[in-house]
Design a protein that fits this description.
Elements: H1 2-32, H2 37-52, H3 65-90, H4 95-102, H5 105-116, H6 124-142, H7 152-176, H8 181-196, H9 199-202, H10 215-243, H11 245-249, H12 255-266, H13 273-290
Helix pairs in contact: 1-10, 1-12, 2-3, 2-8, 2-10, 3-7, 3-8, 4-6, 4-7, 5-7, 6-13, 7-10, 8-10
Length: about 290
């Protein structure tokens, strides 16, 4: 019975990453309509925060100020700072650089977990599977057209984003045994919205509010806010609790694969042999890394 439940959480992790893989396409559409990255983030997290109040207990604060600070840090590392550094990097360096560096998150999560939690052990399957999956990510991201363009600032910001999400995973592991998933997720949304507001001092809101009702804009915002944020963040926090930060984070390697497939169907972009080879490496690596 426990084995079946475990497989359910693995499948849930894959479905969550599949949805997050499609968020890049929705974000790209919204940017083409004139929304800035911080405007998109504010809308998606604000919608998610309002929505979660309908299912979350009315507990306002954590049991102590230390836990409240951890949740604040979670809202920054898994919300405002992560998305701000990643989206800013997209405007500085190549999108392929960003996609590849962000997918080092599972390796960074593993390293941090080994350093912080002494009970964690790096098995050969975990290390070998992670490296194989990372090779697969490189094949998918560069898709047969490798262009070397090093942008120190852009690549550094992307690496900060990867570290940010790794820390977020470990913070969620720390909080998962103390509070309900809905409470933790609601606090993440709240602090994500709160800490993104200073960004508007440097780049004020410019998008016409009336255009938010245009079908393409409204549907993509609802997809990002309701499905990709409200539902997926809550589900992912459960996955982190059940599978652990290291095993759950390995599914992030699948992110560019789902983006590639979504782009092929929604944006008519072509799949290449190189990308398919990368897909095989990713699936094989994730399977090896996820085994006990």
């Amino acid at each position: 019975m426990n084995s079946k439940k475990n497989y359910t959480y693995h499948l849930t992790a894959i479905c969550t990453i599949a949805i997050w893989g499609l968020t890049f396409i929705s974000t790209k559409v919204l940017i083409e309509y004139g929304l800035s990255p911080q405007e998109i983030f504010l809308l998606r997290f604000l919608i998610a925060y309002v929505g979660i109040w309908f299912i979350s207990p009315r507990k306002l604060f954590a049991d102590n100020w230390k836990d409240e600070l951890w949740l604040l840090l979670g809202g920054i590392t898994g919300g405002s700072f992560y998305f701000l550094t990643e989206n800013t990097a997209l405007g500085i360096t190549l999108a392929t650089n960003v996609a590849f560096i962000v997918c080092t998150t599972p390796l960074l999560t593993t390293i941090l977990s080994l350093l912080i939690y002494k009970k964690e052990r790096a098995t050969r399957g975990l290390i070998g599977g992670s490296l194989l999956a990372l090779v697969g990510v490189a094949l998918v991201v560069y898709n047969g057209s490798f262009v070397l363009k090093i942008s120190p600032l852009g690549d550094f910001l992307t690496l900060l984003a990867a570290f940010s999400w790794a820390f977020y995973s470990l913070i969620m592991r720390k909080m998962a045994d103390r509070y309900s998933t809905t409470f933790i997720t609601r606090k993440i949304f709240f602090y994500g919205v709160l800490t993104i507001l200073p960004a508007f001092l440097f780049h004020p809101w410019q998008f016409d509010i009336e255009k938010l009702l245009e079908p393409a804009v409204l549907l993509n915002i609802l997809f990002l806010g309701v499905l990709a944020s409200l539902i997926c963040f809550a589900v992912w926090n459960v996955v982190l609790k059940r599978l652990g930060a290291v095993r759950a984070s390995n599914y992030i390697y699948l992110n560019p694969l789902f983006t590639l497939v979504g782009s092929a169907f929604l944006l008519n972009e072509h799949l290449t042999i190189m990308a398919l080879m990368g897909a095989v490496c990713i699936f094989g690596g994730v399977y090896c890394a996820g085994r006990k």
